[in-house]
Amino acid sequence: MSSEPIWKKDDWKKFLMLNRFSSQRAEVLASALVDQNLTTNQFVDLVAEYDRAPANSALLFKDIGFKSLEVMPFVAGVRRFLESPKTSENESGVPAKRRKMDEQIMPNPQDLDWFNSLKKFALYYEGERGVKRAITPITRDIAVTYAHGSHDKDWVRQTKEKPINVKCFYDDSYSVPAKAVLRSDGPDIVILKAEGEFLSFHPGMSSPRIGMRYLMMGFIGDKENPLKLNVGSVVQEKSCGRFVGSSGSCKGESGAGFWNTEGKVIGMNTAVEFCEVFPREVNQKTKQYVYASGGSTRFISVDVIASVASKYIPEEPTVEIEE
């Protein structure tokens, strides 16, 4: 590894903004990190020390200028960077020119193929003031969304009198009326039944497991209300069928589906674990924010969803456990 400073100030700023830091904080911390003159070896040691003794390493980050709540997203971003493919060395043994941060945030071509295969699952309906609310299909005619907030008992009753109109973000001709048929506060889910079919095929379900990669599709709850894609992996299992994923989540992303690399649904987002800040120059043409980094998100497993909705799901599509 190189003993030269790893990045200049602009590189650090882009890295920090990619990992949920505001432009103002990124500017301050980028200057502080440049002053530290960190080498690649020291960059790696930051993460290693945090893994060994989080409490002790917190003092190191504090000395640099980090606030306590800023350490976790920074370390998560460092891990992601270290796990990404690195540039090769030239014949003289000198490391090739470091990749620009713009290259670091570009999606992997294989992940783009993965995402393209999931576009048909980007379902939503428009709530109050036209705000998109994510819906996750689990069978041909059954889908799930969240139960908190605006999806209270009155909303469930209203859908029975006036069905919601489910749409697909990537298909303007898609329109499927649906009613809420069941609501459960415990797992925070509402089961929706289509008046017809959400899909022409069964999407498949798979139990989440630690280490499983996923792609989450949801909608940011701001004035632009764009589709946002999160790529991460399952990192922890909680009680009552809840899991923690390594990607961040934002206000408005409740109801977003989690899909594994085989295109099977593994769960639905229920909680904003760490609100993210996005560099506004990214993907402004499509209004889609891709590859949110750092933080974490909580989701309810498809096993729980299928159990709650069992009376509406045929016996044939069983939940598979991947080995």
How many DSSP-defined strands?
A: 13
Please give the largest β-sheet.
Answer: 6 strands, antiparallel, barrel
Give the overall shape, derived from the CA principal axes. elongated
Report the radius of gyration as a whole number of Å.
21 Å
Spatial gap, N to C terminus: 36 Å
- Identify the strand order in the major beta sheet: 1-2-3-6-5-4
Instruction: Provide the succession of SSEs.
Output: HHHHHHHEEEHEEEEEEEEEEH
Please count the helical segments: 9
* Overall mean confidence score, pLDDT: 77
- Which class of secondary structure composition applies to the elements? alpha+beta
The proportion of residues forming helix, as a percent range, comes to 25-40%
The protein's oligomeric status is: single chain
- Catalogue the unreliable spans: 85-107, 274-294
Strand content: 15-25%
Task: Describe the protein in words.
The chain has 323 residues and is an alpha+beta fold. Among the domains are: 9-103, no CATH class; 125-194. Helices cover 28% and strands 25% of the residues. It has 9 helices and 13 strands. The chain has helices spanning 9-18, 23-36, 40-52, 54-64, 68-83, 101-104, 109-116, 153-161, 302-308; strands at residues 123-126, 132-137, 142-146, 164-168, 171-184, 189-194, 213-219, 227-237, 242-245, 257-259, 265-272, 289-290, 297-301. Strands 1-2-3-6-5-4 form a 6-stranded antiparallel β-barrel. Strands 7-8-9-13-11-10 form a 6-stranded antiparallel beta barrel. Strand 10 (257-259) and strand 11 form a beta hairpin. Helix 1 crosses helix 2 (23-36) and helix 3 (40-52) crosses helix 5 (68-83). The radius of gyration is 21 Å and the shape is elongated.
